[in-house]
Amino acid sequence: MEEKCLAVITARGGSKRIPRKNIKEFCGRPIIEYSVKAALESGIFDEVMVSTDDAKIALIAKEAGAKVPFFRSEENSGFTLAFSFSASGKSSLTWLRKSCSMFFPCPMPLMPAQIL
What is the CATH number of the domain that holds 25? Predict the structure, then answer.
């Protein structure tokens, strides 16, 4: 099985305060585009994937250069931050292992610095 370094950007559509905030424009570009471009341009990752439950977010993420190979289930689209990567990241990795025969020994969730 091939080993690669994966960036997983979580972007659910059901934000409590600002629904679909990931695709709101900021300085002329959708917010999610900044994360996708930063991950792609870092040169660190072999794959940049967006884990989402929203078709419009998926479309914009793909246009920015990310891969969105599947949609998160409703149960993996919960509100808490801890749940956000553990469930969506796990579902992403499971899908990749089964569908693409790829193994990612070092998945890296991209999160705001204040969370860390």
Answer: 3.90.550.10
Contacts of 72 (CB under 8 A, 6+ apart): 12, 51, 52, 53, 87, 88, 91
**What's the predicted TM-score (pTM) here?**
0.70
Q: Is residue 114 in some structural domain?
A: no
- Enclosing domain of residue 94: 2-109
Q: Residue 112 above 60 pLDDT?
A: no
How many structural domains compose the chain?
1
Q: Which structure tokens are listed for 99? A: 């569908």
DSSP 20: T
What are 10-31's pLDDT values in tens digits?
888 877 788 888 899 999 999 9
Model pLDDT, residue 58: 96
Query: Distance between CA 61 and CA 34 in Å, rounded?
Result: 10
